[in-house]
């Protein structure tokens, strides 16, 4: 079985800057990475964390334009958007999830927020939107300077 590790929880928001301020003031989150504009995903994203060990990373996801999937999620009144899992091999993970009756929505495609690492989107049979991101590849020892 492919190992799945929770990478982050995606939260749909109408405006990144306002959401950053609200999460900081209300819950003690701080900006960790971003914001990034990703035209392929039609979204602006920022990753936030607290200083408490073990707490999940949240990804704030705002629409880049009116045609964004995020805009449709917000219009339905939803804010919990997706759960993202980091996997060592995205192709193998997609194959496994498809065997489990998950529907591939898109991908794999390169993600700006992950330095071009591939991501994919799937719906589970219970209609949970799930994102996969491929883990960074380790460099061969000789490229690390090791022997």
What is the CATH fold-level name? 2,3-Dihydroxybiphenyl 1,2-Dioxygenase, domain 1
What is the C-alpha radius of gyration, as a whole number of Å? 16 Å
The CATH homologous superfamily is termed 2,3-Dihydroxybiphenyl 1,2-Dioxygenase, domain 1
DSSP strand count: 8
Name the strands of the widest sheet in spatial order: 2-3-4-1-5-8-7-6
Task: Note the gap between the termini.
Answer: 32 Å
Spans of at least 5 consecutive residues whose pLDDT stays below 50 are none
Name the shape in a single word: globular
Q: Note the main sheet.
A: 8 strands, mixed
Which CATH architecture is right? Roll
Instruction: Compute the number of structural domains.
Output: 1
Overall pLDDT level: 91
From N to C, what is the helix and strand string? EHEEEHEHEEEH
Strand content bin: 35-45%
Helix segment tally: 4
